[in-house]
Design brief:
Elements: E1 7-17, H1 23-33, E2 37-42, E3 47-54, H2 55-67, E4 74-83, E5 91-93, H3 114-120, H4 164-171, E6 192-196, H5 206-215, E7 220-223, E8 228-233, H6 237-247, E9 255-257, H7 261-267, E10 268-269, H8 272-278, E11 285-290, E12 307-311, H9 316-325, E13 329-333, H10 345-351, E14 358-362, E15 374-378, E16 380-385, E17 395-406, E18 416-425, H11 435-451, E19 458-462, H12 468-479, E20 483-487, H13 489-500, E21 507-517, E22 523-531, E23 536-542, E24 545-546, H14 552-555, H15 557-569, H16 585-597, E25 603-604, H17 607-617, H18 629-637, E26 653-656, E27 661-664, H19 666-677, H20 682-708, E28 712-716, H21 723-735, E29 739-741, H22 753-764
Parallel strand pairs: 2-5, 7-14, 9-12, 11-15, 17-19, 19-20, 21-28, 23-27, 28-29
Antiparallel strand pairs: 1-3, 1-4, 2-3, 6-14, 7-8, 8-13, 9-13, 10-11, 11-12, 15-16, 17-18, 21-22, 22-23, 24-25, 26-27
Helix pairs in contact: 5-9, 13-22, 15-16, 15-17, 17-18, 19-20, 20-21
The chain binds zinc ion (3 copies).
Length: about 775
Amino acid sequence: MVLVGAKRLASISVRGVVQGVGFRPFIYRLAQEYNLKGWVRNTSGNVEIEVEGDEETLHKFLRDIETKAPPMARIEQVKSAYYPPKGYARFEIQESLSQEGKYQLVSPDIATCEDCKREIFTPSDRRYRYPFTNCTNCGPRFTIIEDIPYDRPKTTMRKFKMCPQCQQEYDDPLNRRFHAQPNACPECGPSLKLVDSDGKPLSGDAIKATSDLLKAGKILALRGLGGFQLACDATNEEVVNLLRARKRRPYKPLAIMVANIDEAERHCLASSGEKELLQSPQCPIVLLRWKREPSDVAQAVAPNLKYLGVMLPYTPLHHILLKETGLPMVMTSGNLSEEPIAKDNGEALRRLKGIADYFLLHNRDIYARYDDSVYMVEGVPQAIRRARSYAPYPIFLPFKSKQVLACGAEEKNTFCLTKDEHAFISQHIGDMENEETLEHFADTIELYKKLFRIEPEIVAYDMHPEYLSTKYALKVGSERGLKLVPVQHHHAHIVSCLVENKIEKPVIGVAFDGAGYGTDGTIWGGEFLVADWKNFNRVGHLENVPLPGGAVAIKKPYRMALSYLYKLFGGDFSLKGLPLSNVSPIELDIIKQQIKRGLNSPLTSSAGRLFDAVSALTGIRQEIGYEAQAAIELEMMAPDETGKIETESYPFSIVENEKARIVRLSDLILAVVQDVRSQTAVPQISLKFHNTVSEMIVRMCKLIAQDTGINQVALSGGVFQNRLLLRLAVAALKKEGFNVLTHRLVPCNDGGISLGQAVIANFTSGE
Ligand SMILES: [Zn+2]
Ligand SMILES: [Zn+2]
Ligand SMILES: [Zn+2]
């Protein structure tokens, strides 16, 4: 028999991001609301609570902990146990309890909340137009933390002493700035300084002057949360082109920031899922379908593309600037081409000189570099670049992991450190092709090790001997006597997809990307694996073709077109009627020789290169200005969906040798050549080609399923950023009864590799 109204004591432990996010005041208010007595306190690992009340009220209290938690809290686990009551007289917030060796999750930086936004736009408020306004529900976290526990002296805010008013807010449990470590106001907090490109200060209101300069068509370097952003008027074709020239970024799309969701919809189509993501506390860049008419955003922002990277303001400074200029702004990372984002004032003045006309500096130091995150929504949000507001929140592993450092790949590098059930994937580090990025990589590894108390025993790395991340792993691993585990690139892709979907059993892995080092010395990239967390078997792949001239063939897709033609049909193949006439007879001869004799022409089964070849063959793109440009523009040429799935496709065949099944491509290439010669519309060729690649995937998967009885398919690799191919392949596989796994939390591109490496190393490193 349950005694109605009988009092009990609930002892509750909450794990996750629950410190520095207004969690204790939330519990305090909740306890008041339900008239419960007891206490709440932080420990080194958790938040602990004891409350007394009747059972029904305690149940409601427990439910509300999960459903009404403050916006920045991320609850991983709530444990509760019941005891006889102790007779507490009131509810209180107790002193923190520190426990040796425990660690806590660190909150990412979060976009300005509605309450703070209201304050900065209220003329009578003491934080009116104050660009560093924040509270426990929003503002900087990860970018200012040097160590845990998360207290002001361990952040870059320590040099600002709070004024009495700020201190009062900080000390009041019912205030939304209770223990808000970055709390500040114009009296006591950080401030802005506008300088010209020589570092000479400009007088007057820095924000007003910045707005005026932006409206006048100038390029500004703005110091933000995790580094500098370069900003300019996105409707001004001339300044956008100037920014591209100075940044040495001729084609790669730039992101824009717009004032609010209505503005976003003025320029782009946005589904409800896309709108939700745009307005989320994470506030990432979301790739939206661009309405070129009637949008007045300059064509040069995203040349030849259907999608526009759009984000909403996520700092008070952004909100004020967007409002006061009334313009959509280009907002792009403050760096030159492939270097890491600049974060310090002096560094920016040095590195961005010649790019920015003026610099809006501030004096709140940035500890961790942090680029904007990029997402697309295909049914569900999918990460393309995981950085601001996502890292360092971990991916939860479906097992307890050893402490592993996985060094990731070369392009779009991230690393991953594991401990317990946590995989701490770093924020986007960048392309590891220069010293600056390598240094950023090494520094960030040390920061994560310190924050999460991780001392790796195993180091995982890509098999490619020339990757800087591989060289780092070998050096550090041997210096510190750690166990070294090489991991095959495409195996890592597939396992990253398996782990985030919490699938342990072997699957058919389709790994389509540009390039990854194969175990047979060739370059892989159109792979069909049977894989699990431990092992893989390469059961199929696209036909090998030479990469004439090596890396130069990636920059010049026409070389790939010629490679397919000459490899598959011989050196006498006529180029008549094909858009390859720009190639000089001398270069043509060199390419033929390279292919014939295998000179500097490694073999590749890359799906990315097949897209490049078709893009060049159809005259879409012969040389590229950014990674995958030819393939992306080929995708963009396909006609918009009409609602029905297109069924027309090109022929291809599948053969089997003793090792694997091979997709033979000569029929496909010849059919494309015929379509080009007969002047079939390019959009039709593009759609037919996409259908064909989708069919390749399905037919191969069906054969592999017959061999193995596996009906689960994981799609990974950068090629699956191609939304048309992804949609076609997922639909076609599902139609055949396959269960299809795709990425959501980590990118399908090489930014997700480190997660797969870490898991594989954990399971193959021996006992
Ligand atoms: Zn706030
Ligand atoms: Zn103050
Ligand atoms: Zn890859």
